[in-house]
# Entry
Amino acid sequence: MVSPDKNQSGVVVFILLGFSDYPELQVPLFLLFLTIYAIAVVGNVGMIVFIKINPKLHTPMYFFLSHLSFVDFCYSTIVTPKLLENLVVEDKSISITACITQFSTCVTCVVTEMVMLAVMAYDRFVAICYPLLYRISMSPKHCVLLVTVAYSWGIISSIALTYSLLILSFCEAKIINNFVCEYSVFLSATCSDKHFSETMLFTFANLSALCTLIIILTSYFFIFVTVFKMHSASGRYKAFSTCASQLTVVTIFYGTILFLYCIPNSQNSRLVFKVGSVFYIVVIPMLNPLIYSLRNNDVKATLRKLMGLKIISQ
# Structure
């Protein structure tokens, strides 16, 4: 393992220990994470392909879902390969440049996913509460605008937080008991004043999380009110079934964030935090396409059609 100091070129390096405390689990964890990553890649890319080839899926809801799958694919690809590498190699070092690059791209994906989930909740709100205005409110032009806002805010947040790190000076390398370059990694390694950086993190993290969560909760509050006013049981079931997948994804996504960052550290061991981070970073990108595909008849029909065509061709 590389010693915790600057390398010969004078570039600061971090040592991401990951799961080095459990050497007997290195190989099993590698196989587990590799399997999860493969499922995440196939699931998210497959979801994008299904939506692209099936005309029935060319609707605003699936348009947003395709972008959510793209963000999940990028997110898992940014982090998981480095995690897999650290499980099998002895040199677990990463340069400060590579670490900041990983962090900035992760911020872009995470914040974009937050906004995308809020957009999808708003889409369901308009579809259920104002069905007659749905085609106007969710026109192709408006859908592209909403997706652009999601990516733009993700990029803006990433630039702001990355800038708050670039102005810091790092006096020495640091051994990090983690497997990913989080904001706390840089703050613990800097020898500069951290007040501005901490303020930036607090502002953008809370602004993104609170605003998107308020939009999601408000949308589903009015959805539930509208659904309970329906006289038809079949109508209520249909309305709830269209929201079930997204509610599951939102619950898992925000539930994990709240578990990791809102519970006092004294109640969390370092191992529990690592496991939670793995679930948040590695597992959720795999779960999202599975949840949407298993609970969605249109997606399942597309999959059966493709499998049928393959069998016929053979």
Q: What stands out?
A: The beta strands are 13-16, 93-95, 174-176. Residues 1-9, 310-314 have pLDDT under 50 and may be disordered.
